[in-house]
TrEMBL record:
GO MF: DNA binding
Name of the protein in its database record: HTH-type transcriptional regulator TtuA
Family: Belongs to the LysR transcriptional regulatory family.
Residue span(s) of domain HTH lysR-type: 6-63
Organism: Rhizobium leguminosarum bv. trifolii (strain WSM2304)
Keyword Transcription in record: yes
Keyword Cytoplasm on entry: no
Alphabetical list of CDD domains matching this protein: PBP2_CrgA_like
Known function: Transcriptional regulator of the ttuABCDE tartrate utilization operon.
C-alpha cells in the first residue's frame, strides 16, 4: 500500500464525494477544478489498492469496500480535527462550529431560543441546527450532538440523560363543550383523536391510572399529522382530543385555548436525552453546548429531571 497517497486532503475529498455523489458539486464546494477532485480520487484508489467509487455519467456511488473505507475516514478525520481543536482550546476561548440535531417541534418552540442565549455567552461558537424527527446517523451526517425524544436503541454514542417529558390529554374548550367532556378513559374511543402518523402504535392510547395500572384505549381520527407543531394547531382548532407534551402546549393551557382531559389518567412520559459522538465529547465548545442544553431543557414545562 502506498502510504504517501493517503493524504488527509484526498481523504477529505473522498468523504465529500461519498456524501454528495457528484464530482462537480464537490469541486465547487472546495473551490477547485473537477480534474483536481478526480485526481485526488484516482490517487487515493491507487494507494488503497481497491475501487472505492463506482462512477456513472450521472452519479458516483460507493463500492462495498468504499463504504467501509468511508466510515473509517470519518473517524480518522474527526480525530485529527479533535486533536487540533483541543490544542487550541487549551490556549484560548472556545471557538468554531458545533452541529446540533434536534426533534423539530422542540427545536422550533424552545431550543432555537436557547441557542440565542448560548451564543450571547459564547460569541465565537457557531451552531448549525438541524431540525428533524428522523433518527439520523450522527457520524454519517457529521453531527456532533443530537437532542432526542423517546427510547433509544443500543448506540455507540455517548448518552447524557436529561429526564422525562410528561404528557397529558388535551382538547379545545369549544370541542369539549360541543361533544361533552369524557368522564372515563373508555369514553375516549367515541371522540376524534389527532393522530401522529410517525409514532408507532398511535391508533391506541396507553394511559396510566391513578392506582398505577395501565389502560389501552383504541382511538381513531380523520386527521393524521407527522409533526408536533401541526398537532398543536389541530388541537387548538378543535379538531379532536390528543396526547401531547406539556412543553408543546403549556402556553395554550395557560390562556385557556386548551383544557386538560381526564387529568388523573396520563400517557406514558417520554425520555429526553442528548447523544454525543464520543470523539467530539471532549472538545470544549461541544462540552459547553451539551452542559448548557442539559440544564436549560430540564427547566422546560413538564420535564422531570433524571
Amino acid at each position: 500500500m502506498d502510504k504517501v497517497g493517503l493524504s488527509f486532503d484526498r481523504m477529505r475529498t473522498f468523504v465529500r464525494v461519498a456524501e454528495r455523489g457528484n464530482l462537480s458539486m464537490v469541486a465547487r464546494e472546495l473551490d477547485v477544478g473537477q480534474s483536481t477532485v478526480t485526481r485526488h480520487l484516482n490517487k487515493l484508489e491507487e494507494a488503497v489498492g481497491v475501487p472505492l467509487l463506482s462512477r456513472t455519467t450521472r452519479r458516483v456511488t460507493l463500492t462495498e469496500e468504499g463504504s467501509r473505507y468511508y466510515t473509517n475516514c470519518l473517524q480518522i478525520l474527526r480525530l485529527v480535527e479533535q486533536a487540533a481543536e483541543e490544542a487550541r482550546d487549551a490556549r484560548q476561548a472556545p471557538a468554531g462550529g458545533v452541529r446540533l440535531s434536534c426533534t423539530a417541534a422542540l427545536g422550533v418552540m424552545h431550543v432555537t431560543r436557547m441557542i440565542f442565549e448560548f451564543q450571547d455567552r459564547h460569541p465565537d461558537i457557531r451552531v448549525d441546527l438541524n431540525l428533524t424527527d428522523e433518527r439520523i446517523d450522527l457520524v454519517r451526517e457529521a453531527v456532533d450532538v443530537a437532542l432526542r425524544l423517546g427510547p433509544l436503541a443500543d448506540s455507540a454514542m455517548k448518552l447524557h440523560a436529561i429526564g422525562e417529558s410528561q404528557r397529558l390529554l388535551v382538547g379545545a374548550p369549544a370541542y369539549l363543550s360541543a361533544r361533552g367532556r369524557p368522564q372515563r378513559p373508555a369514553d375516549l374511543s367515541r371522540y376524534e383523536t389527532v393522530v401522529m402518523s410517525n409514532v408507532a402504535g398511535s391508533n391506541q392510547l396507553l394511559l396510566s391510572a391513578p392506582d398505577g395500572t395501565s389502560l389501552m384505549i383504541p382511538v381513531s381520527g380523520r386527521l393524521r399529522v407527522d409533526h408536533g407543531l401541526a398537532a398543536r394547531e389541530a388541537l387548538a382548532a378543535g379538531r379532536g382530543i390528543g396526547p401531547t407534551h406539556l412543553w408543546l402546549v403549556h402556553d395554550l393551557l395557560d390562556d385557556g385555548r386548551l383544557e386538560i382531559v381526564l387529568g388523573d389518567y396520563r400517557p406514558s412520559p417520554v425520555p429526553v436525552s442528548l447523544l454525543i459522538v464520543p470523539e467530539r465529547a471532549a472538545i470544549a465548545r461541544v462540552r459547553l453546548l451539551v452542559d448548557f442544553l442539559a440544564a436549560e431543557v430540564a427547566k422546560l414545562p413538564g420535564i422531570r429531571p433524571s
